[in-house]
Amino acid sequence: MKTLPTWDLTPIYPGCDSKEFLSDLRIVVAESKALEESLGTDSSDLKANIERYELVLDYLENLNAYSSACLTTDTSNPLFLKAVSQVEEASLVVQHLEVLFLNYLATRKEEVAKRTSQGGDLAEYRFPLHELLQEQKHQMAPELEALASDLARSGTDAFSRLQESMGSSIHTEWDEKTDKTVVQLRSDATNADRNVRRRAFEKELALWKAYEVPFAAALNGVKGTTLTLDKMRGFTSPLDRSLFESRIDRPILDALISTLEQSIPLFRKYLKRKAELLGLPGLSFYDLFAPVGKEGSHFSYDEAHAFIVKQFSTFSEEMGAFADHAFKARWIDPESRNGKVGGAYDTVFPLARQSRILSNFDYTYSGVSTLAHELGHAWHDSVVLPKSNLKRTYPMTLAETASIFSEFLVFQGALAESSSEQRLALVEQFVQDATQVCIDILSRFYFESEVFARRPEGELSASELCSIMEEAQKRTYGDGLVEYHPYMWAAKGHYYSSDFSFYNYPYAFGQLFALGLYEKSRHAGSSFPDQYKTLLAATGSFSAREVASLVDIDLADPGFWQQGMAVIATYIEELCDAPLH
């Protein structure tokens, strides 16, 4: 089998100890301190200070993305760990600057309002600056914000790194010649042999059980700190803060969550049908990702490259050319290897105007779909990168739009080229993924809500966390499963982020929003790719409600979310009508 490539990070920096990397670290610190002085000068210009502030943010984002990208491919590398620590050190200076900058804006409210009004020289900054002024209202005193930032390095950030490092490296014996990490064991969930799936699941649970104490300690540390800081900053709850950061309001979230809850019977119907298609009396958690129907198509990496470019190009030649360049320029690191984190992500380097994609490509259609998903993120990045920092930074809710839209393009292309047997496997794969984004995400939302409700009473033990997780899965999967995964709280790194709690519902938002957009594209004709690009370009400059309104969508209308769910329902019904073999 042809060796998979690794990504090329040299256009960003030659290395973590290179003079270029170290120079940019010094620039971040020096420019931050220089701008702090300027903010204290009455004669300094608002626009000039905004532009200097954005440049500092770009430098820090570039450094952080690079050091994190290096570390996620080799989580125990001391050079990469040092680089992450150096960036964190520099970020403390920037975080102090951020506090002062928000306070500076608050002293210039009238000027901000005047210059961001229609016709003003800062009109394009209307939403970002208003959002920063709202954020300023939730700031603690500067000295407390500085203390919180400093303590995070050895607290919540360290707990997050602990979960990431352990979650990618803990391993167990598979046979006499082979050890498997927990990431590799989780990958076996797609194996066609149920005995392999069951054995991998049991070994995975045993690993989580063996290391449950440090995972539980880390999660308690993150959630406890989050509750304390959110309260100090005047948020009614971590969810309140999450909605603010997602640029949505409670009516929008309620419309989304109610749609997910109403869909539970639909997905349970699918899960029971999948058990029948697999010849099982009921599904266990380790059967969720089992292939159905004819063995799915296998793709070499080159075939995945060609297929994705072809499908993207059917929608937009520009988008297809972008994906082709990403493959050829080695923007992607697809190989699964020891020490590399599991899953996949896209990261952007603003100074270089480039993105990079990490994945664990497994030569299946699912692997192709994952690449398409992350390339969608990268395409989104490329659309907003020409804008300055404050006007291109978009929230998690809108971040999943382009990725899921791209996945669906590839899915439609695969269906068009499939035989009837292959179609069954593809449709099941789509519904399988939708189940994760809608039902599993809902269980994660329930889990995190319950943890935040109970954490003020004291630390939660590993067994309590397992119990909460299993109950959350029973509320969503219900009798669609006969066996659950009580340790998903240890497996999912999203729970260990203090900067963004409820790192779950935005995925469901993105799924249904993207499917709704795709339905619009079917009726909008050749003009839609341009409308779509305009929408993506606006995601950093407006609220989610305003962005959606560009294509006449009301996010608080449950009817809109039902349109996206109706697309999924069509494929579930197709599966339920499929004959048993």
From TrEMBL:
<comment type="similarity">
    <text>Belongs to the peptidase M3 family.</text>
</comment>
<dbReference type="InterPro" id="IPR013647">
    <property type="entry name" value="OligopepF_N_dom"/>
</dbReference>
<feature type="domain" description="Peptidase M3A/M3B catalytic">
    <location>
        <begin position="191"/>
        <end position="566"/>
    </location>
</feature>
<protein>
    <submittedName>
        <fullName>M3 family oligoendopeptidase</fullName>
    </submittedName>
</protein>
<dbReference type="InterPro" id="IPR034006">
    <property type="entry name" value="M3B_PepF_2"/>
</dbReference>
<keyword id="KW-0378">Hydrolase</keyword>
<keyword id="KW-0482">Metalloprotease</keyword>
<keyword id="KW-0645">Protease</keyword>
<keyword id="KW-0862">Zinc</keyword>
<dbReference type="Pfam" id="PF01432">
    <property type="entry name" value="Peptidase_M3"/>
</dbReference>
<dbReference type="InterPro" id="IPR001333">
    <property type="entry name" value="Peptidase_M32_Taq"/>
</dbReference>
<dbReference type="Pfam" id="PF08439">
    <property type="entry name" value="Peptidase_M3_N"/>
</dbReference>
<keyword id="KW-0479">Metal-binding</keyword>
<dbReference type="InterPro" id="IPR001567">
    <property type="entry name" value="Pept_M3A_M3B_dom"/>
</dbReference>
<dbReference type="InterPro" id="IPR042088">
    <property type="entry name" value="OligoPept_F_C"/>
</dbReference>
<dbReference type="InterPro" id="IPR011977">
    <property type="entry name" value="Pept_M3B_clade3"/>
</dbReference>
<feature type="domain" description="Oligopeptidase F N-terminal">
    <location>
        <begin position="110"/>
        <end position="164"/>
    </location>
</feature>
